Amino acid sequence: QVQLLESGGGLVPAGGSLRLSCAASGVIFSINVMGWYRQAPGNQRELVATITSGGSTNYADSVKGRFAISRDNAKNTVYLQMNSLKPEDTAVYYCNAEGVYTPWGTRNDYWGQGTQVTVSS
Question: How far is it, in rounded angstroms, from Cα 34 to Cα 57?
Fold first, then answer.
């Protein structure tokens, strides 16, 4: 069984920083793409950033220059460094893994349970 567990969320003032972590557990050979999505109340879930196993990154325009995604393939862990946080960054942040290769097959998507990020004015 593969599970994703996020951590690092919390309450931070505007202009502050947080670092989110997501670790994939279980017997895993590799993960093709890992990423972060977020959903604010009343909004659709939106992509924040993704990173491939080779290190290629993709960011939403709203976070470019402020957020940085990275990963440790050996630990099946992805990170999101969030700097210069704004109140509009407030949301539940979800970890995502695509192309998860295990001894029992490959699954396109796994999702974490979410971690709350609240940025105060």
Answer: 10
**According to the model, what pLDDT value does residue 107 have?**
85
Neighbouring C-alpha atoms within 13 Å toward the C-beta of 109: 8
- Give the three-state DSSP class for 75: helix
Predicted confidence (pLDDT) per residue in 57-87, tens digit = 999 999 999 999 999 999 999 999 999 999 9
Evaluated on CA atoms 102, 39, 14, 7, the torsion sign reads negative
Helix (H, G, I), strand (E, B) or coil at 115: strand
How far apart are alpha carbons 77 and 73 in whole angstroms?
A: 7
